[in-house]
Amino acid sequence: MTKSIAFTEYGSADVLRVVDTDVPEPGPGQVRITVRTAGVNPLDSKIRAGYMEQVFPVDFPHVAGLEAAGVVEALGEGVEGLAVGDDVFGQTTTGAYAERALAEVAKVALKPGTLSWEQAAALPVAAETAYRALDMLTVQPGETLLIHGAAGGVGTVAVQFAVARGVKVVGTASEANHEHLRALGAVPVAYGDGLVERVRAAAPQGIDAALDAAGRGDALQASVELTGGTERVLSIADAPGAGKLGVRFTSGAEGYYGEPAFAEALALFAADKLTIAVHEVFPLEAAADAQRASEAGHLTGKIVLRVSEGV
Predict the structure, then answer these.
(1) 102, 90 in Cβ contact below 8 A?
(2) Gap between the Cα atoms of 273 and 64, Å rounded
(3) Which end of the chain is more exposed for a tag (fewer CB within 10 A), N or C?
(4) Residue-wise pLDDT tens for the chain (311 aa)?
(5) What is the SS3 assignment for 59-104?
(6) Residues 221, 299: Cα–Cα separation, whole Å
(7) Backbone angles phi, psi at 6, to 5 degrees
(8) Which of 49, 133, 39 is nearest to 92 (CA)?
(9) Could you give the strand order of the β-sheet that contains 144-148, starting from the edge strand earlier in sequence?
(10) Residue 101, strand partner residues
(11) CB atoms < 10 A from the CB of 62, how many?
């Protein structure tokens, strides 16, 4: 048996429990990893609450979590390019809030020694989502991109991907995170009343595209106004709002961008051009508190769970 964090019904973070589950066996093209750290994403809370039931249906009990970093413990049939003992990070097939998890070989990458376990767990979903969003928005060098929720896990990586591609970035965030955004190369603006006017003052040349990674307030309506239409506005956080306005929403069904996203992230990290911000680290047993903190927002980077002792 292996220790996991699971829920047997939809609800608040209170439904999360420490449980013993069977050790999963890797199938063809899969590896089993001993999890060192796991990332906590806003989507984790939405799945747990039942908001994503139509898109991400689950069977109970359901082990939470989407991404992890750890050590390869077992190989499934046909696995090439990885060996038992390799340090890896990526998206998991089984829940990541667990001592052991399965992952598709195509959705993991080797973890360089310079990348901490906490950073490695914070990277997979953020990098893949940021890469996918920029691709869907067809952001080009010299353009100006507005990112809502720019200081969060996805936002922080999206800012740096865009800046590295020669894009000017304006990012919304709370005042406490403005210096963080400046350090990443973005022009920070506060959200709330008067947002459109503040963005126009920060980007008098205009906004070419907008990414909503916040899912709050009037971000999408403001984005449509600032870009002059819905064509180059994309949300990863507000499906209902996107539907009402005719704005695209991406959940990953459009295709998986893990391999190029991880390659770009690791290349930037090696060149000291990517900061992987970790907001706070919680022990596995405090997963409910970690999700509450994620739901409260105002994060600088990603919340991470420490699963194995000694990490």
Answers:
(1) no
(2) 31
(3) N
(4) 999 999 999 999 999 999 999 999 999 999 999 999 999 999 999 999 999 898 889 999 999 999 999 999 999 999 999 999 999 999 999 999 999 999 999 999 999 999 999 999 999 999 999 999 999 999 999 999 999 999 999 999 999 999 999 999 999 999 999 999 999 999 999 999 999 999 999 999 999 999 999 998 799 999 999 999 999 999 999 999 999 999 999 988 888 999 999 999 999 999 999 999 999 999 999 999 999 999 998 889 999 999 986 54
(5) CCCEECCCEEEEEEEEECCCCCCCCCCCEEEEECCCCCCECEEEEE
(6) 23
(7) -135, 170
(8) 39
(9) 187-189, 168-172, 144-148, 209-212, 233-235, 248-249
(10) 33
(11) 21
Q: Two tokens at 252?
A: 């990953």
Pairing of strands 87-91, 100-104: unpaired
- Amino acid, single-letter form, for residue 244: K
Give dist(CA 263, CA 61) in Å, integer.
34
Strands (E), the chain: 2-7, 17-21, 30-40, 62-63, 67-75, 87-91, 100-104, 108-110, 144-148, 168-172, 187-189, 209-212, 233-235, 248-249, 278-283, 302-306
